[in-house]
Design brief:
This protein has 420 residues and is of the alpha/beta class. 35% of the residues lie in helices and 14% in strands. GO terms for molecular function: lipase activity.
Length: 420
């Protein structure tokens, strides 16, 4: 079975899970400590700087930051563009990838089409982060990836620990407030943190590409088929057994044999067309070169935790933005002090935080109806602090790999940054 099928089908699997354990994250500016730390992750010689950035003619620095709960994250700094210039005077921008990706998301295209390099060439101090569990961020202060506890997290922890650690590190290294860009899940964790008043004191503005908050209206044929034909027909016990059988309880490895095996079952479902899985799941991307898929498969997809996939499945099933649901009132009460998970109140994002939201009408994951739901939630945001860009023809992958993304999305985004 072609490797091209691996990427989209891993997203389908988020719809099939519904129970696991983790500690409740706490949001506080004092809860994460950004420090340079040693790690067992890939060496600098094999890192993103030396493998991708430096060969293209850009200076690049490798950094490490440790979260409050012990994960060691990889960051790359591109302080200057190809033309050089003076270090230290540029405004920092932090780039956060989405689900099952890593920092290479922002470097997959040629230099004049990759957002990280476009920003560097236009005068920004660019920082790229890779989330916990991905290839370059597998270090931990006392756990190993083989340990069950290493994978005991969801995007709750990305919002509560990873994002604050990287914000604080970039802020301390540069002495400046920063712009933020997230794609897909990278938008969700930012909005979750901002809604609790976190990080905004270090933030200039935020660019949210293919924003994901509410996901109850996704139009992906694969996703909908999975939700309607599997989740609705199994109880919690059987669903857990399916999770254990197909995925393993802890690490969700999208390149493993289980995914290929599971794909065959999904493709056998009536009404599911697997001839073009990428488009049938993300929406019909208008502007990808065929060669970009080969580049993508050289680096992606990346691992996540099975528990994180379950959490996203809960959001799709329930149409809500809540913390992880243990499907047990007693467990939820133990973790949260109440029988149901607390909600993230997106409307509590400070109204004066500059926001740039860009979404497309062909996106099956950041669906137009879901984005409109998000925009209604933000209806009281200061109107001079929010820009909404609607891109006809764009689907989920176009925002990070589209051949014309620079002209369509990145240039308006940079203009927005320069106003803030």
């Amino acid at each position: 079975m072609s490797n091209i099928l691996i990427f989209p089908i891993t997203y389908v699997l988020i719809l099939f899970c519904s129970s696991a354990l983790a500690n409740q994250p706490r949001f506080s500016s004092n809860e994460t400590t950004a420090v340079v730390a040693s790690t067992a992750a890939a060496s600098n010689a094999d890192g993103i700087c030396q493998s991708i950035v430096v060969p293209r003619g850009y200076p690049c620095e490798e950094h490490k930051v440790r979260t409050k709960d012990g994960f060691v994250l990889s960051l790359q700094r591109i302080p200057l563009g190809r033309a050089g210039g003076k270090r230290g005077s540029r405004v920092p921008v932090l780039l956060q990838h989405g689900l099952l990706m890593d920092g290479i998301t922002w470097l997959l295209s040629p230099p004049d089409e990759s957002l990280a390099l476009v920003l560097a060439d236009n005068g920004f101090d660019v920082w790229i982060v890779s989330s916990r569990g991905t290839k370059y961020s597998r270090g931990h202060a006392y756990l190993k990836p083989e340990d069950e506890a290493y994978w005991d997290w969801t995007w709750d922890e990305l919002a509560a620990y990873d994002l604050p650690a990287t914000f604080q590190y970039v802020h301390s290294q540069t002495g400046q407030k920063l712009h933020y860009v997230g794609h897909s899940l990278g938008t969700l964790i930012a909005m979750a943190a901002f809604s609790k008043g976190e990080l905004v004191s270090m933030l200039r503005s935020a660019g949210l590409l293919s924003p994901v908050a509410y996901v109850g209206e996704i139009t992906s044929p694969l996703g909908r088929n999975a939700a309607e034909n599997f989740i609705a027909e199994v109880n919690i016990y059987n669903l857990l057994q399916l999770t254990l059988k197909w995925l393993g309880l802890h690490e969700f490895n999208p390149k493993g044999d289980a995914v290929t095996k599971f794909l065959k079952k999904i493709c056998a479902q009536r009404g599911v067309d697997c001839t073009n899985l990428l488009n049938s799941f993300t929406g019909k991307n208008c502007c990808l070169k065929p060669s970009i898929v080969d580049v993508f498969l050289d680096h992606e997809p990346q691992p996540s935790s099975t528990k994180n996939m379950i959490h996203i499945a809960q959001m799709i099933r329930d149409g809500t933005i809540r913390m992880y649901d243990y499907n047990d009132a007693g467990q939820n009460r133990k973790r949260y002090g109440q029988p149901t998970p607390p909600a993230y109140n997106i409307e509590n994002i400070p109204k004066n935080v500059p926001l740039f939201l860009s979404h497309g009408d062909a996106d099956s994951l950041s669906d137009v109806n879901d984005v409109n739901h998000l925009l209604r939630t933000l209806k009281h945001h200061d109107q001079d602090k929010i820009v909404v860009q609607f891109v006809k023809g764009y689907a989920h992958a176009d925002f990070v790999m589209g051949t014309n993304a620079r002209q369509v999305v990145y240039e308006p985004l940079m203009a927005f940054f320069k106003r803030h």
